[in-house]
Amino acid sequence: MDQDNICRNLKVQIGDETVDIPYGTPLAVIADQYYDERHEYPALLARVDGKLRELHKSIRRDCRISFVSMEDSIGRKTYRRSMNLLFLKAMYHVIGREHLEKVVLHFAVGDGFYYTVHGDVAIDDELIGKVKRYMHSLVEKEIPLMKRDVNTQEAISLFHQYGMYDKEKLFRYRRVSRVNIYDVDGFEDYFYGFMVNHTGYLKVFDLLRYEEGIVLLMPGKEQPDRIAPFTPSKKVFQVQKEAEVWAEKLDVSTVGDLNERISQGKMNQLFLVSEALQEGRIARIAEEIASRPTVKFVMIAGPSSSGKTTFSRRLSIQLIAHGLKPHPISVDNYFRPRKETPRDKNGEYDFECLEALDVELFNQDMNRLLEGEAVQLPTYNFVSGEREYRDAPLSIGEDDVLVIEGIHCLNDAFSYSLPKEKKYKIYISALTQLNVDEHNRIPTTDGRLLRRMIRDNRTRGTNARETIARWPSVRRGEENNIFPYQEEADVIFNSALLYELSVLKMYAEPLLFQVQREDKEYDEAVRLLKFLDYFLPMPSEEVPHNSILREFIGGSCFDV
User: Fold this and answer.
1) For residue 287, what is the enclosing H or E element?
2) Does the structure show a pLDDT above 70 at 328?
3) Which residues on neighbouring strands pair with residue 375, listed in sequence order?
4) Which domains are assigned to the chain?
5) What are the strands of the beta sheet with 45-48, ordered from one edge?
6) Once rounded to an integer, what is the mean pLDDT over residues 460-469?
7) Nearest Cα to Cα of residue 335 among 313, 349, 346, 351
């Protein structure tokens, strides 16, 4: 039967075309013939009957094939993951295992990854030049990125032998019996997700020194074939470093560390310390605001599911404890009437652009309050799409401050007429400080997506598929309206909690399993389920009722 198959052609649909392709043809060969020459960027992965496949795989049945490139989010993640493997191979080769304790991937910086190197080695331009040249030599040779699967116990022994102890600990808590290991020219490592077919795909990158480590720069979404100028967010970088320092002090830097705590029943202290660190930070922010008597407007902005509402409530309590009288104001109440709301390129209402807000009215109201007038502020009715006036007029005195929350609060174009000295700007985001292991990072967007998925299902009845489908639009709004202004903030607050993904797992997994194979969002749901499989579950009973996490899982003592 196999011999008969080898001799026959398969019917393969590629786009609108159905072609005859010999049984057993690798997907890379099909991509080269039917995709790469017709598109600006080469295929990095394929979908065979809707299921993602690496290009070294072969076809053995009639099927429908589409391809994934750098123009796709999954393609860009594949490129970055593969570049990570190439960089690590080069570092271990150039420096030598005998001189390296470990190379640690910490977090994203701009369009790159930030690493530190531990061992008997100095990070200088000479080393970076050697590593870069070696990486380019591997690219030119088009070396295959080979994948083999081994049983979990073998993987644990292998990574102990390699001195990759974070991976050794990670796999002690894995329920799967097999582990995929990638190899490039004799260097083996484990990675969470698919890889490109060979090193020849990885032409575009750069290396540079930054702070105490190295940044591996890669193409961004806007220009998938070139490296954009390196423009790090220095304030965000320092907050991420601070978070990792605390994670190290608590001995919970990786998922394996967290799982070890859970399995040993030692989570209570981690709950308490994580929450205490956040409360201490909020108290210091309130103290700084109170020390500036000119401040009247506390402007809070951050991306979706950062916990802005709970943060503003907890900050208000701390402001009261410092002798101030806070008044919460939501920027959403200044939406224009629905019929005046701009539409995006798809004809949908664009509620995230600045033009969706009545900026003039906001500035008029705030200036009238500054001048001592009593002002009746609007409330937006999201059902009717109209502003209403139903609250008593507000006036502010010497000790009053307005705590204003909204996505445009860091943009001076929104509060253009308010004196700078009267504004205190806060950027809040969930900057995950936990990594899967030393070479696999957890994107901050994954934590926020899971938070939003759980909250939207609980409060709006929205299913996981709808939240995933909406997420790219949410991200575009953040990239246009929030991230460009994060460095304008007086302070950055990190709302991520070390323990939260083990708690979110309990709520997210049932929702993700509802996404069907035929849904466009299925690949992302599967990716998130595989990601959550790394974590041991943790019940939420011990999560404090004033925790930011309660904004998403429910049970908050605040009206959120």
Assistant:
1) helix 268-290
2) yes
3) 394
4) 2-69 (3.10.20.30), 74-232 (3.30.980.10), 237-553 (3.40.50.300)
5) 17-22, 9-14, 63-68, 45-48, 51-54
6) 95
7) 351
Residue for token pair 């998925």: 453
Q: Residue 452 burial by CB count (10 A; 0-12/13-18/19+): exposed, middle or buried?
A: buried
Contact yes or no for 29/35 (Cβ under 8 A): no
Mean pLDDT of the chain: 94
Give me the residue label for tokens 């220095």: 234
Task: Characterize the bridge pairing of strands 178-184 and 187-189.
Answer: antiparallel
Local structure of residue 434 (DSSP, 8 states):
-
What pairing do the DSSP bridges indicate for beta strands 45-48 and 63-68? antiparallel
DSSP secondary structure string for all residues of 34-50? HTGGGSSS---EEEETT
DSSP 162: T
Q: Which of 216, 158, 144 is nearest to 188 (CA)?
A: 158
Is the CB of residue 279 less than 8 Å from the CB of residue 314?
yes
pLDDT for 1: 44
Mean pLDDT of 40-68: 95
pLDDT for 59: 95
What is the token pair recorded at 16?
Answer: 């609108």
- Structure confidence at residue 285 (pLDDT): 98
Kindly give the pairing relationship between strand 206-210 and strand 187-189.
unpaired
Q: Please write the tens of the pLDDT for every residue from 191-224.
A: 988 999 999 999 999 999 999 999 999 998 888 9
E strands, 348-446, where? 379-381, 386-388, 400-405, 423-429
By three-state DSSP, how is residue 169 classified? Answer: helix
Residues 69-84: pLDDT tens digits? 999 989 999 999 999 9
Taken as a whole, the chain contains a residue count of 560
Distance CA 452, CA 460 (A): 11
Cα–Cα distance, 433 to 258 (Å, whole number): 12
Model-level pTM? 0.91
Q: Report the alpha-carbon distance of residue 34 to residue 177 in Å, rounded.
A: 37
* 3-state SS assignment for residue 430: coil
Distance CA 353, CA 268 (A): 42
What are the two backbone dihedrals, phi and then psi, of residue 427, each rounded to the nearest 5 degrees? Answer: -105, 130
Sequence letter at residue 65: I
